[in-house]
Amino acid sequence: MPDHGTYDRLISLLDSSSVDHKLIDHEPEGTTEAVSALRGHPVSEAAKCIVLRVKVDRRTTRHVLAVVPGDRRVDLDAVKTLFAARYVGFSDAETAERLAQAVPGTVLPFSFDPELELVADPDVVALPRLYFNAARLDRSLSLSGADYERVARPRVERVASPAQA
Predict the structure, then answer these.
(1) How many CB atoms lie within 10 A of CB 54?
(2) What is the mean pLDDT of the segment spanning 92-97?
């Protein structure tokens, strides 16, 4: 679906915000563990970005982009509590792709759609270096967690739990 429009929008945002960032070209890869190895950093320094469907009540559905460290998983119960929701689950692929403006495996820890609320775990914004695919399977980006927080302006809440063994 998306061309490189989301990538171009991200780079433009970072450049206009004077953010020190590094582009990393690599073999096409979308899984957190494999792309972290290609980029040469621990999985814990990757941003795992998951689009969620949050049913607040019978009539109200919100969409949330949860960003957690790559070695963790999204705590659905924490998100449910955060939004006082009745139900929280993973968004269907079509909706996730439309709202994130990126294909699975390339979802950015940024939201360019007002219908997609951005929530990042505090451990993400605390990272000295944060790595993620830059809306492309063959290119990644690295920047500090503090710069990420300043530019992306996520709601910072505890939404990560340990990965299951």
Answers:
(1) 23
(2) 95
141 forms beta bridges with 23, 132
Which single residue is written with the structure tokens 């020190």? 20
DSSP state of 72: E
**pLDDT tens digit string along 102-114?**
988 899 999 999 9
DSSP-derived 3-state class of residue 30 = coil
Where in the chain does DSSP place strands (E)? 22-25, 47-55, 61-69, 72-74, 87-90, 116-120, 130-133, 139-143, 155-156, 160-162
Model's pTM, two decimal places? 0.94
Q: Which residues contact 23 (CB under 8 A, 6 or more apart)?
A: 134, 139, 140, 141
* CB-based burial label for 68 (10 Å; 0-12, 13-18, 19+): buried
Confidence band of 1 (pLDDT split at 50, 70, 90): very low
In the predicted model, what is the mean pLDDT of residues 150-163?
Answer: 94
Q: Do 96 and 107 contact (CB within 8 A), yes or no?
A: yes
CA dist 66 and 22 (Å) reads 23
CA nearest neighbour of 131 among 29, 51, 9, 5? 29
